[in-house]
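Record GTPase HflX, 435 aa.
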Amino acid sequence: MFFERPGSGETAVLVHIDFQAAEQFEDAGEFMELVRSAGATPAALVNGTRRHPDPKTFLGTGKLDELRDTIAAHEAELVLFNHALSPSQERNLERELKCRVLDRTGLILDIFAQRARTHEGKLQVELAQLEYMSTRLVRGWTHLERQKGGIGLRGPGETQLETDRRLLRGRIKAINKRLDKVRKQREQNRRARERGEIPSISLVGYTNAGKSTLFNTVTNSEVYAADQLFATLDPTLRRLEVADVGPVVMADTVGFIRHLPHKLVEAFKATLEEAAQADLLIHVVDAADPEREANIEEVNKVLTEIGANEVPQLQVMNKIDLLGSSPRIEHDDYHDPQSVWLSARDNQGLDLLLEALSARLGVDIVDVSVSLTPKQGWLRAQLHDINAVREEAFDEQGNAQLAIRLPKRDFLQLLSRAGEDPEDYLPQSYFEDAF
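=>
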């Protein structure tokens, strides 16, 4: 990493202020979870109410004195704000409190830095860190003294701050070039899946809604899953078989959170494009969370920001074991599945999820009876290989009478490879939307 992350386990004083403006609302309970996920030890919580943040120090004079006393009483070495601070506010607070100050964005970035595992994930986190730190470099170089000259180094010189900014801009440019390559590679992979007509599904949802647990259970994978915020950072793709659809690709993505920093959305654009380009989004919701409606709204905001708001959604209400509810599917007026209630941890209702996926993706299913002569043995064998044959019988001439069920696109491909005319096997109604 370009910036060394301080060791975990630091004693921290937390600051949470309630503002009247709805857009400035932050959840204190969620803030505690973020702090624990970062590995800090919460010593005390300083809270209060204000109409607007103070432009200089965010807090009023009285609350600043209370915070200073709390830091001294607990010998804290870090102050964490559940709000976004401007660079000048952060700098002024550090000067007043004589200790390190980190805002909500910096805290989330720190968690991301801990969780990134893949090379791509680390690059994306580092880019977000650099963008965030670029406006805060001055706090580390307040002296702004000129670098000392020397033989071969004399000249106008530059401040240490200017040097850091120049190096930082170069690093940002290099990371962006490497992420562009990642983006192009992902685009190539998506085009290959489209050519193979393999549908793609992306799991999205608020952080800690249970996406990775659901992903592991459905796909028999071992993606890291834990009861903590941002357990998953790196995207994972797995193949899944769905009845009446065939193979689909399922992607597990990073969780969203209220007021997700824009720089993080930008940095993770290559990853989040998996959601924007999907055929279906599985929106996983923690059904037991009292804030679930607000969380759904926040996820939809981020989906709009990344251009995925037009992608069809299937809502999954997870953790019903905490509610004492039973698994079920809820349909709309056209009998299309809209939400599935299940428990990924207890393996309840997963069959209903696969049923709903089949209904949402498994359109254009061929369900007919065909007659094949002995000379058409290759086609018969292929239909058996893909488990499309439900019943089979033979007549006196040795012709096979098959009852088949499979996606229309697969049957048309088989007929094309066998040199057969689809109109000899399918009623006219199957061709209305074929081309």
